[in-house]
Design goal:
alpha/beta, five-stranded parallel beta sheet, Rossmann fold, 5 strands, homodimer, SGNH_hydro_sf (chains A, B), 223 residues, SGNH_hydro (chains A, B)
Amino acid sequence: MNPCVIPTFPVDIVGDGRWMSMHNRFVQQAKSSEPDVVLIGDSIIQQLQFSSLWTEKISSLHCINLGIGGDRVENVLWRIKNGEFYFPTRVKAVVLFVGTNNTDCTPHEIFEGILEIVKQIKQLLGNVIIVIPTLLPRGQFPNPYRERNDHVNTFLVDKFSNEANKDELTENVHVVKIHENIVGNDQTISHHIMHDYLHLTNKGYTKIFGKVYDTLCELLQTS
Amino acid sequence: MNPCVIPTFPVDIVGDGRWMSMHNRFVQQAKSSEPDVVLIGDSIIQQLQFSSLWTEKISSLHCINLGIGGDRVENVLWRIKNGEFYFPTRVKAVVLFVGTNNTDCTPHEIFEGILEIVKQIKQLLGNVIIVIPTLLPRGQFPNPYRERNDHVNTFLVDKFSNEANKDELTENVHVVKIHENIVGNDQTISHHIMHDYLHLTNKGYTKIFGKVYDTLCELLQTS
């Protein structure tokens, strides 16, 4: 069985209960907030809210940020099924960005997990706009996890951008190719964009998630 | 043998080489930069450089930030012994902040590891000012890891602030008690200060690391 499609909360190895504290807070926030845009995912989404792109642009879209550092596909699936998406008003758009932490899964497993999350979001929020940024490369030098994320992206682009594969699930789902032009000609990633070769600097967020913001604005305007 | 006093680099479980990339970059940066203040530690130091406190105040002290997310005491010890502290000019002050990731160690082991790092810094940089902020509490609710960090702090304060324990090692080392007034009367930690009950928000950095900045300014002025 593909572990990515089984809703799971992470084992609290350390024992400080932080993940569940964040989940419980998000459930409470969902009940009492009336966001237009919901962002959910791992640390890259979580830290977005401390970037200048967030302060200067994204926050004005009336957002809620449900990022949790270290989250895997199955953790986001669990959160969505357990109260974080029970909003009192209609949500206009969801940004879904998760997968790079599923380092022990195959690209197809990760892809299937993302499809399962999309299905779940549609069940709960109806025909909402769903924006899926492609997974980012990681590591200063080429490594198997860059390839893995690239393969996930190939599946995502094929499923959601290829007319031949359109079905009920793909409706109103938009993949934004943010993974391009990050790796340099010498195959390395600059720390000016990704300070630890995984997470984005302020400059990185502006360059890379700027595309997500532009897509959101465009889609919200025409919706 | 206490694992905290054995210089160790972390196993690259994922296989994307990010930790070693960061270390190698820091070694190169050390060689070519002429910082007055060096900050070294884990993700809390690493993310400090994306806070408004950093931009508005700390960066003006002519700093280099050697924070690596997830770092343990023995990893910082390894980095210092392996080139990150080989600066071409005299460093005035070091801020050392690590220990919360040693969740499987005893408070005394963590404390001894920090002493070992102090010893190593003094060997390499001479009688530099060393500022050690106390470890922060973690987890929304009381848990054993808050107590563990508190015990480390008790050892640190006793060693470096108690006149009776002064020796060659404690000279010019200053513990800053940043751990106080974070946990509320109801024993919880607010997400307005620690967004994930471990890492600091912008507001949290200003409130908590503001004390470190003030101490640094004071010590640098009188040095």
